[in-house]
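User: Please predict the structure of the protein below. I'd like the answer in structure-token form so I can feed it into my own downstream comparison script.

Assistant: Understood. Taking the following sequence of 258 residues as input:
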Amino acid sequence: MNGMAPMLCPLPAFVFARSMRLLLGLHPQLGGSVYLCLNSLRMLKIDHFTFNPFAENTYVLSHPNGACLLLDPGCQSAQEEQALLDFFAERNLQPDAVLLTHAHLDHVFGVQFLHRQFKLPIYAHPLSKGMIERLPQICQMYGLPPAQCPMPSHWLNPEAGFDWQGEHFDLPHLPGHSPDHVALIHPDQGFAFSGDVLFRDSIGRSDLPGGNQEQLMESIGHLLNAYPDSMQVYPGHGPSTTLGRERKLNPYLSGRFS
């Protein structure tokens, strides 16, 4: 990585996540599976991979009918791309759409690959447009080969939420880390994909272009005030957590939202 460019993930330890998984005898990319039950007939499943030099979490949200939603696909190398294809084949999944919480480079590396393979619709906030257009230049700033990302086919409207396979999700706009940032939340099943706003024991950076510390804290406050402490949080880097845990233990939130 180019030492002149700032890392996008908030904790340097995340960069070593893949090595730690190998030391522990775990798969270096596939993170794990979580089943989320609405009732005995309908069940969503969350799987995640850790991809690219930024140790970004790519999530696969699967419906019982075999359709799956790809959140922030960060696969960059041919090996990482093949890992996703193998996973789809093993689970008999049909990729159905891509949704971006935001368009920072580590969260979009794999969009073009998936679009070419499956002709998927791509959903993102309208403010993602400028970052996607500048992606090749931004990659060069980080000492990486220029990458391309197709322009989203659908612009998200946070006020309307997001509907997929008969499920309705909240889609709050959460700027501060990035102007285009949204979270994908299923209140009934109690889970949230928080992107790079909130992490276990940390919060997103606000010193990148378009970042704003005051907005970031307001966005985190919205999550903590609008949803219960039991809400499971799946972040863009690092392990999952809950809103309640971060309210109590996150050193960056100490005393702010108790």
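That's the full token string. Confidence is low (pLDDT under 50) at residues 1-28, 35-41.
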